[in-house]
Amino acid sequence: MSPRRAVVRRFELPLHQPLATAHGPIERREGYLVELTDDDGQRGYGEATPLPGFGTEDRATCRTALVAAIESFVLGQPIEQASLEGVDASPCATFAMTTAMEDLEARREGVPLAVRLARDLDPPATSIASQALVGGETAGDVRESSQRAIELGFRVFKLKLAVSPDARELATDIERVEALREAVGPDARIRLDANEAWALKEADQALRALARFDIDYVEQPVAAGDLAGLKSLSLNGAIPVAADEALLGAGLTTCLEQRAAKILIVKPAALGGLGRAQALAIRCRDEGLRLVWSTMIDGAVGRGAAFALAAAFDDPEEVHGLGTARLLALDLGEETSGFEGGRFALRAECGLGFVPELESASSDVFEVSS
Questions:
Q1: 328 lies in the same domain as 364
Q2: Rounded Cα gap, residues 327 and 17, in angstroms
Q3: pLDDT band at residue 148, thresholds of 50, 70 and 90?
Q4: Residue 201 a catalytic site member
Q5: Could you confirm whether 158 is annotated as catalytic?
């Protein structure tokens, strides 16, 4: 059954404070909430929150792709999910459409989205361990940010490196990481994210200098296109490295074929659809690759889809990068998972369990009915 009505609403979600990254500061997240409604009044939701600096489409391209998709979908030309997968030009739009479709189907079936995504696999997990993203350009800022995360119950912590032109000196990053380690203690797990900040030689030197802090892994230490450099660090680096931006678009296939990294940081919104994310999860399990689900500081719907994937393809030993809701000053609706003790507990509601709160939505609304 095809949806009879589709609505696309633009939204803007400001952060409590700008998040510094090697790609530049992130002050707000802007995107589109997709709502599909069937004849029985069931509604499915998807979220497209592009991040061009990370390598996704821009907002205008995303909106164009969404409008084209829902016009075809609602006005008598149903789009199968398979035909949406792998649309590298608009991965966030594809993610939104496939999430809305799967959410709607899960609600029709009367099951949580994680159950629908798991299908013939083991029953999904009921809770997911998550890291906290801590920030700050100075050691003092990092110490304060990590203390707030500790008080919330997080036990695994991630810090971005090379976060501004004034903080790209390795010595500055060493001070920041040292402050984090002192704050969280010797037993907590620390992860670092360089966001493509270094050339291979710089990355090798940085990993050697940071190894004394007992780092779990460093995300994307070299440019996304430098798969040879990433593989070299994966084989010989002083700290394990993970692929992140390298997985965008055609890079995913090449990265897997070349075995450029053994750890993959997978952002479903940037990957281009839930089906593509499911296929990658199965391949990682079959090939013994470590998969960490993450987000691009998405709203509640995007995070909810990532929660469902993490639960459907559960690895009880893994801690995922899903604890970003606290960075947002405004959200699309209530969190679809409860949080306690460093873990998100999935609710039993059908589909995503999402109920929109549209104060963040603007007057830019696109609607199609059949």
A1: no
A2: 8
A3: very high
A4: no
A5: no
